[in-house]
Design brief:
α1 (11-23) crosses α9 (280-293), α4 (78-87) runs parallel beside α5 and α8 packs across α10. This protein has helices spanning 11-23, 38-48, 57-64, 78-87, 102-111, 129-137, 168-171, 175-191, 280-293, 301-320, 334-337, and strands at 2-7, 28-34, 52-54, 68-71, 91-94, 119-121, 144-154, 194-202, 213-220, 225-231, 233-245, 249-254, 263-265, 324-325. By secondary structure, the chain is an alpha/beta fold. The strands form 2 sheets. An 8-stranded mixed β-sheet has the order 13-12-11-7-10-9-8-14. Strands 3-2-1-4-5-6 form a 6-stranded parallel β-sheet, with helices on both faces. It contains 11 helices and 14 strands. The radius of gyration is 20 Å and the shape is globular. The termini are far apart. It has 2 domains: 2-124, NAD(P)-binding Rossmann-like Domain (Rossmann fold); 125-266 and 297-337, Dihydrodipicolinate Reductase, domain 2. GO terms for molecular function: nucleotide binding. Pfam families: GFO_IDH_MocA, GFO_IDH_MocA_C3. This is Gfo/Idh/MocA family oxidoreductase.
Length: 353
C-alpha cells in the first residue's frame, strides 16, 4: 500500500482528494493529515477515518514518512511545503496553482531527485477519456488550425471574502491562473507549445487586487491560433473548448468535469473506446501507476510547467500591452518572478498590485 498524507484540511481535500483516495483504496491509504488549525485537522481525521492529525507538516513528515503528500493549502504556502515533502522522500500531488511564479516552479523541479520523488500538479481536466481520445487521434483529424478556450464561471463577493483570495501575494494571480488554467492546460495538451500571446485583463466587478476577467489571442508553434477567455463574472457558467482541425471539429461543453457525452465531433473517427471522467480519481490513478513504476508522472516537470509558462506570458502581455513571445519568459523577465511583474496596473488600468 502507498501511504498518503494530506496537508490542508479544507474543502478541496474533503470533497476531491479523500474521494480520490477511496476510489483507489486497494492501492493507497490515507494515514495522516496536517493543518495549522489543529482542531480542524483532528475533526477532519475523525470524519474521514484518518489515523493521525498534526498541526505542522514537518511533524507529520518526521513521524509518518509518507510515500505521497497531497498539498491542499493556499497557493502562497505551496512551494515551501512541496520542497519539504520532496526532501522527506515523498512524492507530491499539488493543487493548482502549484506555485505563484515560474521561479518557484523551477525551485521545486530543482528539489526533485533523479528518478523521484516528483511533484505533479492537479490538472485533472486533461485526463478524461475524451481528451485522451482526442490526443490519440493525432494527425488523423488533419492539421490543428483554430481553438476556442473559454472558462466563463461565476464567483461572488462571498468567495473573495476568504482572506487570502484575490491578492497577488497569496494567490499569485486571479481567475486566469486559478480557474482558466484547467482549460488552458487541456488546450495545450492537444495543440502543443504556444509561440506568442496578445492579452488584456481587468478587474471589472469584484473587490479584489487581481483580475476577474482576461482575454487572449494566441499563436502556437505549429501555426494554429486560439482565442482564450476567462471570467468569474458570468451568471451562466460554462467551460467550453473547441478544436478545429483541417478535417474535423471537436467540441467539449461542461462545467467542472466531463464524461464522453459532453464531447461532440464532426469526424466519423470520433469514438472513445471507454468512458472515464475527468476527475481527481482519474489523475490519482495515473499518479499511482507512475509511482509504482518509478517513472515521472504526467503533469509534472516540463509537462506541468507548460500551463504556468502560458499564463505567465498572458499576464506579461496584459500588463505591458504588447505581444509576448515564449522565448521572452526567462529568469531575466520580471514576470518569471511575479505574475504581475511588479507593475501596479494592467495596461489600460483597473488592477493594482
Amino acid at each position: 500500500m502507498i501511504r498518503a498524507a494530506i496537508v490542508g484540511a479544507g474543502a478541496i481535500a474533503a470533497h476531491s482528494h479523500v474521494p480520490a483516495v477511496r476510489a483507489h483504496r486497494d492501492r493507497v491509504e490515507l494515514v495522516a493529515v496536517a493543518d495549522v488549525d489543529e482542531a480542524r485537522a483532528t475533526s477532519f481525521a475523525a470524519e474521514h477515518g484518518v489515523r493521525s492529525a498534526y498541526p505542522d507538516l514537518g511533524d507529520l513528515l518526521a513521524a509518518e514518512r509518507p510515500d505521497l503528500v497531497m498539498v491542499c493549502t493556499p497557493p502562497h504556502l505551496h512551494v515551501e511545503q512541496v520542497i519539504a515533502a520532496l526532501g522527506a522522500g515523498a512524492w507530491v500531488w499539488c493543487e493548482k496553482p502549484a506555485t505563484l511564479s515560474l521561479a518557484e516552479y523551477d525551485r521545486i523541479e530543482a528539489a526533485e531527485g533523479r528518478g523521484g520523488p516528483y511533484m505533479t500538479v492537479v490538472y485533472q481536466q486533461r485526463f478524461g477519456s475524451g481528451a485522451e481520445h482526442l490526443r490519440e487521434l493525432g494527425g488523423a483529424l488533419g492539421r490543428p488550425l483554430v481553438a476556442l478556450c473559454q472558462t466563463t464561471w461565476h464567483r461572488g463577493d462571498d468567495y473573495y471574502a476568504v482572506p487570502y483570495r484575490g491578492k497577488w501575494a497569496t494567490e499569485g494571480g486571479g481567475t486566469t491562473v486559478l480557474h482558466g488554467v484547467h482549460q488552458m492546460d487541456l488546450m495545450l495538451s492537444v495543440f502543443g507549445d504556444w509561440a506568442e500571446i496578445r492579452a488584456m485583463a481587468g478587474t471589472l466587478e469584484r473587490p479584489i487586487e487581481t483580475e476577474d476577467v482576461s482575454m487572449a489571442m494566441v499563436r502556437f508553434a505549429n501555426g494554429a491560433m486560439a482565442s482564450v477567455v476567462t471570467s468569474v463574472l458570468s451568471p451562466r457558467q460554462e467551460s467550453y473548448l473547441r478544436f478545429d482541425f483541417a478535417e474535423a471539429t471537436v467540441e467539449l461543453r461542461h462545467l467542472y468535469g466531463y464524461r464522453n457525452a459532453d464531447w461532440s465531433s464532426t469526424s466519423p473517427l470520433w469514438n472513445p473506446p471507454r468512458d472515464v471522467p475527468s476527475s481527481h480519481d482519474t489523475q490519482l490513478g495515473l499518479l499511482l501507476d507512475a509511482y509504482e513504476r518509478g517513472a515521472r508522472p504526467p503533469a509534472s516537470g516540463a509537462d506541468g510547467r507548460r500551463a504556468m509558462e502560458f499564463v505567465t506570458g498572458l499576464y506579461a502581455s496584459a500588463f505591458t500591452g504588447r505581444p509576448v513571445r515564449r522565448e521572452e519568459i526567462t529568469p531575466d523577465s520580471p514576470f518569471y518572478h511575479r505574475l504581475d511583474g511588479g507593475i501596479e496596473t494592467f495596461f489600460g488600468g483597473t488592477a493594482t498590485s
